[in-house]
Amino acid sequence: MSGIAFGSDDTVSSAATIAAGYTSSIIAARWLATIIDSALLLAVLFTPVVALDKAVGEVVIWLSLALIAAYFPVMETRYGGSLGKLATGTRVVNIRGERPSWWQAIVRTLLRLIEVNPLLFGAIPAGVVVLLSGTRQRLGDMLAGTYVLRRADIGRIRKTGTARVAEPVWSQATVAVPVPVPPPLPPAPPAVPGSDDARWARP
Fold first, then answer.
1. pLDDT for the residue numbered 78
2. 7 CB-contact burial (10 Å; exposed 0-12 / middle 13-18 / buried 19+)
């Protein structure tokens, strides 16, 4: 990893800033994670066919396909990455360094069928796109607005630009409120000469 310009407090503005500073070594980490995940998923997919009776295996294989379809969205939204990414110390995050939302994880998974399909071109399409991308994203990341970072770098993202929940009134700082001043009394009526009240008008 190189080229990441950290601030004086050792933070950066977003996940994109960190991703833009990664060298091609992040591609190797992502590729290794893909190999681990592919091996696990292929084992889950083909074990029922080999180990079980044909009739039972056909039923179980559909359950295996459902498990594979849910694997990446569940793992990424709950843990920030698949087992392969957890093993390689990488995580999937949004621009603020948080775990992706459900729709972001689903978008990444749908594009994975083309970019990272071991039965088609392996992870070659994703690797080429990540290598050419300035922020080390594959197409699924670009469409979902996600980034793959090293776990150690996520804590360096400043939590700025996020929506803040309004604080309750009782938790806000006390503001000095001016005390209302009563209006002045009306002027006394002019004294009538010769009356007893004339003495109050004398200087």
1. 96
2. exposed
- CA distances 68 to 42, 74, 100, 128, 195, Å, are 9, 10, 18, 25, 107
Q: Dihedrals φ, ψ of 78, to 5°?
A: -90, -40
Give 104-137 pLDDT, tens digit per residue.
999 999 998 888 876 677 678 888 899 899 999 9
101-106 — which CB contacts under 8 Å span 24+ positions? Answer: 101/77, 102/73, 102/77, 103/144, 104/144, 104/145, 104/146, 105/72, 105/73, 105/76, 105/77, 105/144, 106/73
Strand partners, 149: 91
* 129 φψ region: left (φ > 0), alpha (ψ -120 to 50), beta (else): alpha
Structure-token match 């990424």, residue found: 76
pTM of the model: 0.69
| Type of residue found at 84 | G
